[in-house]
Amino acid sequence: MNTYLLIKTIHIISSVLMVGTGFGSAFYLFFTHRIGNVRSIADVSRLVVRADWWFTTPTVIIQPLSGLWLAHEAGWPLDTSWIALSLGLYALAGACWLPVVWLQIRMEKMAASAATANAPLPSIYWQCARRWEWLGYPAFIAMVVVFGLMVIKPTLG
Fold it and tell me: pLDDT grade, residue 156 (50/70/90)?
């Protein structure tokens, strides 16, 4: 396998891990919130934070590095419409993801404290959960569009 195909494979696998981990984590915490069991919320939020550190964070770094390398090797300028739009959407997703990480860590701590004390979650937890959820929507949509742009590579504008 040549270097280009190796980096392309890494790029594709890391994109799947990044979006898949994000979607899976959001799915489980979203529905665990609907159940409302504090111990379950504490457990799932702990695992969501771990998944972000173990899977999402490395892939967030790998994606732009591998993508920029692939574009360079293929001779695509960064102002190519689909690449520029992909980079903009990636930046939007990142701008949503960074506060999500902070919210997740905060929510994990509140949920662990509530579970240990056998107490309900404080109202600030639910405010954080709403922000976490609403930041997830544009980030996920942006990444789905980036997937489409990577595959189709349309000429835009």
Answer: confident
pLDDT digits (tens, 9 = 90+) for 56-113: 999 999 999 999 999 999 999 999 999 999 999 999 999 999 999 999 999 999 999 9
Write the CA distances from 92 to 4, 18, 51, 89, 140, integer angstroms.
Answer: 27, 15, 21, 5, 10
Which CB contacts under 8 angstroms, 24+ apart, belong to 102-106?
103/128, 103/129, 103/131, 103/132, 103/135, 104/45, 104/48, 104/49, 104/52, 104/132, 105/49
Map tokens 């790029």 to a residue: 11
Residue 69 phi/psi, 5-degree rounding, is -65, -45
**45 pLDDT exceeds 80?**
yes
Q: Which residues, in sequence order, are CB contacts of 13 under 8 Å at separation 6+?
A: none
DSSP codes, 59-102: HHHHHHHHHHHHHHHHT--TTSHHHHHHHHHHHHHHHHHHHHHH
Query: Residue 66's Cα: distance from chain center in Å?
Result: 17
Q: What global pTM score does this model have?
A: 0.89
